[in-house]
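Justification of computing resources. Each target in the renewal requires a structure prediction run like the one illustrated here; the chain below, 560 residues long, is used simply to show the kind of job we budget for.
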Amino acid sequence: MAADLDFDEDDLRALAGARSFDRGRGYLAAVTAVEVGDGWITATVHGTDVYQAELTLDRPDGLAGECDCPYGVEGNFCKHLVALGLTVLAEPEAVPRQRGRARARAQELDAWLAALTGDELLALVREQVAGDRQLARRLELRAASARGDLAEVRTRIRELFDTAPFARYGYVEDADARAYGAQAAQAVAAIAALTAAGRPAEAITLSREAMRLLSEAQDAIDDSDGHLGRIGSALAEAHLDACRAGRPDPDETARWLVGHLLGELDDLTGVDLPDYEDVLGAQGALRVKELATSAWRRNRTGWAEKHLMELLAQAEGDIDGWVAVHAADLAPDGSTHLAVARALDSAGRPDEALRWAERGVEESPADSTPDLALIDYLCDRYTRADRLPDAVALRRVHFAGHRTLAAYRQLRTAARATGRWQAEREQALALLRKDAGQRRQSWHGGPVLVDALLDDGDVDAAWRAAAETRAHDRQWLALADRARAARPADALTVYLRLAEPLGKQTGNAVYEQLTGLLLGMRDCHRLLGTEAEFTAHLAALRAGQRRKRNLMRLLDQHGL
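Resulting structure tokens:
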């Protein structure tokens, strides 16, 4: 990666995809008029038409780009942007020089504008406004903000948040969301201008209205690139700045903040309560707590109400208040108990934490088992406290409710630490045999009994269990791999059965499976002293599959 650039070829390939990246390589000679500024690179790229391409650097989410070609306006990172990026990467030593020239031009322009008389500057602005209706609208809005024409500003803001000009069939596609975001940003600028003009009260009112308008618009917009989130954050910042400048009534601000944080608007704006500490003062902070507590008491299971109470408790360092919020809405699986236990651990209260975790197990419904993370937490605490039998008892209960290979392994680990694994194993296997008899299958297919016996290294018992139950093909393959040294004839039978249907299928994954099975067959025949049979089998297979070039190549690579 070049020292003065924050991207490389891998970044361009990741953004564009392999096809557009490769096509972009063919457009290097078509890139002209490259300009490098602080955080941006622009150029003209000559293709089917003449296109303007711009790369944006130094963004929190990395490199981005815009191009006015048909593919680019749909929001894609096109071949023209790739060509621009590759052109700049090819001459990294030129970047500081070009960036310096861009800064010099900006300084020269600034000096020239500063030297103009008021009349000359006014004439220049009028000339630009006459040729650019978008610029005219932005300036009209700024003018209305500056003169405090609240009715006009409100009307313009409503227009700027209107999705109709961008919607196709009632919905704003991702390709148009950027333009909508740019238009909405004008409203944010106008609100900020009101504060700068000494009218923060109006800015507070309009920023709140704008947040509502943005929330109403979000369901009609594909915001994959996060344009609405950026506008929402900017509105929150404009509101906070206006509050700091205008010092609104603390009680009224508290009511708005609580209502906002409990509503749906906060999904976009991300208003942060601690930011308002200086605005609220002691009186407003007390009012926030009163309102939040009242709302929580009315709806103790509401996510927003609980989250707000958590924020307040954390801000005050009130661990007991935080626990009280969670205690009012305990999940039946004990996961809430675990959250409380961990919080108490962090507060240096381990005994209380342990009791809360134990309550999570005790209070779980009889027809379900506690959350695995809670079981893991308690077993860790018991092990560190040398309460090993208690850890085994927990693992036993969990295994009884979740008869999986993972739960079997955890029970085995805990029981071995006490020297009682053999007795526990017989009980656990009895449950798994019952499941196998009832044809219960693991998530991966086949009875867990076979997996558990294999995991114990008891291959003969696992083979018998597989023969007596409906073992899955993956289990038979694992058995054949583990048993072929001692039972080559049995393993060969498994390999042949699994290989037979693969000859009728295609695809590299299939070819890899078939090759693995053939390697297993070869080992079995060597152990049985029947290498000639394998040679004949392989020759017949190659003759019948010779058109599958990838398979032939794979067999050659493995000496088959």
